[in-house]
Amino acid sequence: MKYLRWDETLFRDPDVFDPDYLPEEYLYRESQLSRLKANLKPAIRKSRPVSTLCLGPPATGKTTAIKLLFNELKEFEDVICVYVNCQIINSKQQAFAKIFEKVYGYSLPSYGTPFLKVYSNIMKKVVGEEKVLVVALDDLNFLLDDLVVNEIIYALLKAHEEVEGVKIGVIGIATDIKLTARLDERTGSIFHPDEIFFSPYGRDEIRDILNSRAKLGFYPDVLTSDALEMITDLTFESTDLRMGLYLLKMSGLEAEKRASTKIEIEDVDRVSEGGKKVFLRKLLGALSEDERLLLREIYSRDNLTSGELYEEFKEKMKMGYTKFYEMLNKLETIKLIDTRFDQKKRGRTRTIIKRYNSEVVLNALKDN
Length: 368
Description:
The chain is α/β, with parallel strands linked by helices. The chain has 3 domains: 30-197, P-loop containing nucleotide triphosphate hydrolases (Rossmann fold, 3-Layer(aba) Sandwich), CATH 3.40.50.300; 201-284, Helicase, Ruva Protein, domain 3 (Orthogonal Bundle), CATH 1.10.8; 287-367, Winged helix-like DNA-binding domain superfamily/Winged helix DNA-binding domain (Arc Repressor Mutant, subunit A, Orthogonal Bundle). It contains 15 helices and 7 strands. The chain has helices at 30-44, 62-73, 92-104, 115-128, 146-157, 159-162, 185-188, 203-217, 225-238, 241-257, 265-285, 289-299, 306-317, 321-333, 358-367; strands at residues 52-55, 79-85, 132-138, 168-174, 194-197, 337-341, 350-354. The strands form 2 sheets. A 5-stranded parallel β-sheet has the order 2-3-4-1-5, sandwiched between helices. A two-stranded antiparallel ribbon has the order 6-7. Helix 3 (92-104) runs parallel beside helix 4 (115-128) and helix 8 (203-217) crosses helix 10. The longest helix is centred in the C-terminal third of the chain and has 21 residues, at 265-285. 35% of the residues are buried. The mean pLDDT is 91.
């Protein structure tokens, strides 16, 4: 049969294609999981866990690894695991309100509660119940104010000096591999994390991961091998596994529109351009106003080097060298641009390479 009846579907479980779905089969991250487990193991013995920093490009499994381990730790009543999304929570007060909610089981009042009272109540309850607190700070690099980064980490790691007996482990998750350079001397003196790198997935790894999800999300023999290969290529090109999950789901819906029992290349082709635009909007939403201005400058020009861009941009924004290169590196990390060192030019200047069509990006910047 080539066509679906009106009451049939290709999807066994559409939730499998959601980015926050936690897979039972977690491929190609065995070594990272092993080190994370070793660092967290002291917590189940009521000892302080090893602080950890999970580093690597977007969509390389960092958040998934932490959430999987936090799920496993639920069976240990003496460990309290708190996940803090720093894209949403961007102040010390908000971060500790989230921790308070997890420790006490209810939220703080909507009106202002002094930070010191929140902080003290958290620590006293953790100690009083003889528990270990593990706090994961996801997307730390989105806390653009370095003061906030330092304040949160310092407050957590120095808690044992304020309330005797407190045991806390900190897990940082970031795309910026130079994150520790943002720490001030005070915080850097006490935060010595085990740095675990999550490298980008290779093409074959991407194919295996997408195929594993497809087997869970679709009924047998729904996804053709040609369609899987095309989705794999597009995902590898974007360097973002979430792109592949999106394309799997949307291609399935497209095939259902045709009442087809198979997902073919034509279905992938129809949704691929829309997929690129969706992910571009998500990337732009993660930028500060200054970063958006820098991106607009890049996509408004051709054949730029980083040195030329800095000379022009610093005059407009009155910005220092360090801040400029932090912003440029972020644009490269989240795959809005590429850079390449030019051997013919003196110094360490880089040629800037656009990853998207200029008109598409400039229009998206207007709309976003």
